[in-house]
């Protein structure tokens, strides 16, 4: 996308931005604090480990920056890979956290200024504000000027630090550096977490990627090179510092704070380099902190700029000045935030919050690369690719979580606050204005759909026998019994199974009995003898007393219907009439119907339980009805039937309230359709504002399902934020609705479940299917499927 931004930054200037963003308070303030944390010289190892842990994020950011050399850095990566929500979190968080770091850097030189000029102490705030304004003006006038200034600052700083290292080596005390690389030191992980923020600037190169010359080569060289150089510099400087300064003695003398904070580098220079060396090191410290502020402002301003281009921030932030070719508003607002933070906010506390969030950003960057590599991204062909994929990224994420736990409660709470504010902003401002989604989410949806398709193929190809228990009670109306039997026959007919119609009679609790449940075989009842299941097609269904398929039976009764014979054409063309499922009639006397149904189905090894849906149980808070008990404990699939009559079935609507279709629900619908000659219609909703990519993925999923089904099937994807109303509108045109059932729970008892609400508002018979072994989706699973498939 042409933006008017100039590609002015070469390799050295780009490296200077990263080094300037890293070499600041991390090296001039934190060594003493980390020394106290790790309780010894192993602070050197802590800096080395932290640099290694940042390496995966640097490689990941390098690859994505070469593929998408756009201003915005980690925001762009996360937004493109993981979607606008996480992109908003990364963008808003990075913007404010870089501003916080810039403000901290401007006042972080206080110990060094006081060290050489105590009389300037009262002017510190004025100097910090003046520098913030100066850097803002420089970044408005020219990115090239900002990069050149950064190069000069970093050059002077590196010369001074090199002098410090070379000059300090002869004065090292071996006793003080003993154990510098001792991995067994107590507090090593905590110290690593503390100094982790020292490397946060490494991926800031990506924030100005759109202004880098030859980004395919320059960005990875600058990013990896600056990280390796800075890590080596940190290790050498810290090693010399603790080798020439007795930190415990300095704390005791008041030269350092009890927590190790203070001008430790100035103390080390004073002990080894004399006045000239001390002045140069103090100058380097002040320049380093100034460069951190400058790089922070430069990088921070590019986040609202990039977010505005994607519709995640007001459009004014993406306007580039015709005179200066810079995003003036983005730079100005970022500079104003830094000034306000310098004047009003305790910056040291805010900096700790930034540490936690920067680790989260590194985790998201590694995750985003996985999203791009595995996702449905067109034209993703970066000139540079990260090595050791995906193990390096997985290691980076895992180590990031470990380090994050060592930062303490307050920084984590700050990161959580920034995240919460970003989420609120997303739903109030961003979501109504964007319909994109990340590559990872698109690919996860595809993967979930593929997994569901594979399970469906396996189930339809199994060819295993299905035996069905039709569980009725004295309260079940005759018409409902007939429809439940019909469904049972359809389920078992295709797989040479059997149907057991069992009347569960409830009796009051008895005392001194051998058993509270008894069972007996019955002759076919009168309602079954006189059944006319379908007046349109003639056929015979054999109903056996006490029989299973292949067993001798004592009595048969003929029922007219197409369920047994499938269709008249099948009878006419088959060399012999198709065999109908045998039906066994039972009566079970029990004190508790729900447990009796479950025990019977388990003992008889049934594949499905067909049960009447009891509306009166839907809002029971303190008791468990028959439906709930069976759904909770059934050893097999459960079909709840809401009977409104369905003679002459021509169309069956199969609806899913969320996520993918469960294979057993499709199997049930397909079996009924094949036995009745009906067609299926797959109904699924997605939100009104869902991106077009989601509809395409869902349509591809439906198309694959239609190839698996054995009957003719249509597909309807409905865009609606009221999915129950949308599904009901189309389901009412069908003769039968097949949908899912859900356990009620407290929320379901109070507010109802989508499946129950759908069945309640339609006028057709509904079959609610709970697959075998699936009691209830967990909260996380429900939320994920709902987000993925709408």
From TrEMBL:
Sorted UniProt keywords: Membrane, Transmembrane, Transmembrane helix
Residues annotated as domain Amino acid permease/ SLC12A: 15-414
Cellular component GO terms held in the UniProt record: membrane
GO terms of biological process kind: transmembrane transport
SUPFAM superfamilies given in the database record: Adenine nucleotide alpha hydrolases-like (SSF52402)
PANTHER family: AMINO ACID TRANSPORTER-RELATED, INNER MEMBRANE TRANSPORT PROTEIN YBAT
Name of the featured protein: Amino acid permease
Record lineage: Archaea, Methanobacteriati, Methanobacteriota, Stenosarchaea group, Halobacteria
């Amino acid at each position: 996308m042409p933006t008017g931004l100039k590609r002015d930054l070469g390799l050295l200037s780009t490296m200077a931005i990263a080094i300037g963003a890293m070499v600041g308070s991390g090296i001039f303030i934190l060594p003493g604090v980390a020394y106290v944390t790790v309780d010894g010289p192993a602070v050197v190892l802590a800096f080395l480990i932290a640099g290694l842990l940042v390496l995966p994020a640097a490689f990941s950011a390098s690859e994505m920056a070469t593929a998408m050399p756009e201003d915005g850095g980690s925001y762009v990566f996360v937004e493109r890979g993981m979607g606008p929500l996480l992109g908003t979190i990364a963008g808003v968080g990075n913007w404010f956290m870089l501003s916080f770091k810039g403000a901290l850097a401007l006042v972080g030189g206080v110990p060094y200024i006081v060290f050489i000029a105590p009389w300037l102490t009262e002017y510190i705030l004025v100097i910090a504000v003046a520098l913030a304004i100066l850097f803002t003006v420089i970044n408005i006038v020219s990115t090239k000027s900002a990069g050149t200034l950064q190069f000069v600052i970093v050059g002077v700083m590196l010369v001074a630090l090199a002098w410090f290292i070379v000059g300090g080596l002869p004065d090292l005390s071996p006793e003080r550096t003993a154990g510098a690389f001792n991995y067994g030191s107590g507090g090593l992980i905590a110290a690593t977490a503390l100094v982790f923020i020292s490397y946060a600037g490494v991926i800031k190169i990506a924030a100005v990627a759109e202004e880098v010359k030859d980004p395919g080569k320059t960005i990875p060289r600058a990013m990896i090179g600056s990280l390796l150089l800075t890590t080596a510099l940190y290790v050498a400087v810290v090693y010399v510092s603790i080798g020439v300064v007795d930190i415990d003695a300095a704390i005791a003398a008041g030269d350092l704070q009890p927590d190790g904070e203070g001008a430790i580098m100035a103390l080390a220079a004073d002990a080894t380099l004399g006045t000239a060396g001390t002045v140069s090191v103090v100058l380097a410290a002040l320049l380093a902190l100034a460069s951190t502020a400058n790089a922070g402002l430069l990088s921070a301003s590019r986040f609202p700029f990039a977010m505005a281009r994607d519709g995640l921030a007001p459009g004014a932030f993406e306007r580039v000045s015709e005179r200066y070719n810079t995003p003036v508003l983005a730079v100005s607002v970022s500079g104003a935030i830094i000034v306000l933070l310098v004047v009003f906010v305790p910056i040291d506390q805010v900096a700790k919050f930034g540490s936690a969030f920067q680790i989260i950003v590194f985790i998201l960057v590694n995750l985003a690369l996985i999203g791009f590599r595995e996702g449905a991204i067109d034209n993703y062909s970066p000139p540079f690719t990260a090595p050791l994929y995906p193990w390096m990224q997985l290691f980076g994420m895992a180590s990031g979580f470990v380090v994050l736990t060592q930062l303490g409660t307050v920084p984590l709470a700050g990161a959580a606050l920034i995240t919460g504010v970003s989420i609120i902003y997303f739903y109030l401002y961003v979501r109504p204005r964007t319909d994109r989604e990340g590559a990872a989410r698109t690919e996860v949806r595809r993967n979930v759909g593929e997994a569901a398709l594979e399970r469906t193929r396996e189930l339809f190809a199994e060819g295993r026998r299905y035996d069905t228990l039709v569980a009725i009670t004295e309260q079940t109306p005759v018409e409902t019994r007939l429809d439940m039997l019909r469904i049972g026959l359809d389920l078992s007919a295709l797989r040479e199974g059997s149907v057991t119609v069992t009347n569960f009679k409830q009796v009051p609790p008895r005392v001194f009995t051998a058993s509270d449940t008894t069972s007996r075989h019955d002759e076919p009842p009168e309602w079954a003898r006189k059944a006319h299941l379908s007046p349109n097609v003639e056929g015979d269904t054999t109903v056996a007393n006490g029989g299973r398929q292949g067993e001798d039976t004592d009595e048969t009764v003929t029922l007219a219907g197409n369920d047994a014979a499938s269709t008249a054409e099948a009878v006419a063309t088959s060399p012999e009439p198709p065999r109908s499922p045998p039906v066994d009639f039972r009566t079970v006397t029990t004190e508790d119907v729900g447990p009796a149904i479950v025990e019977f189905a388990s003992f008889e090894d049934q594949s499905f339980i067909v049960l009447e849906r009891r509306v009166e149980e839907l809002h029971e808070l303190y008791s468990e009805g028959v439906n709930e008990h069976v759904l909770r404990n059934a050893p097999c699939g459960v079909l709840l039937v809401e009977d409104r009559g369905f003679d002459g079935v021509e169309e069956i609507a199969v609806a899913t309230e969320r996520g993918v279709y469960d294979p057993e629900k499709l199997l049930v619908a397909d079996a009924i359709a094949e036995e009745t000659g009906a067609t299926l219609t797959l109904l699924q909703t997605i939100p009104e504002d869902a991106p077009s990519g989601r509809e395409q993925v869902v349509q591809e999923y439906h198309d694959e399902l239609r190839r698996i089904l054995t009957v003719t099937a249509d597909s309807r994807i409905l865009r609606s934020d009221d999915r129950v109303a949308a599904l009901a509108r189309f389901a009412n045109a069908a003769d039968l609705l097949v949908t899912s059932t859900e356990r009620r729970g407290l929320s379901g008892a109070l507010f109802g479940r989508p499946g129950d609400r759908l069945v309640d508002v339609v006028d057709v018979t509904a079959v609610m299917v709970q697959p075998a072994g699936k009691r209830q989706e967990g909260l996380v699973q429900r939320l994920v499927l709902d987000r993925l498939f709408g």
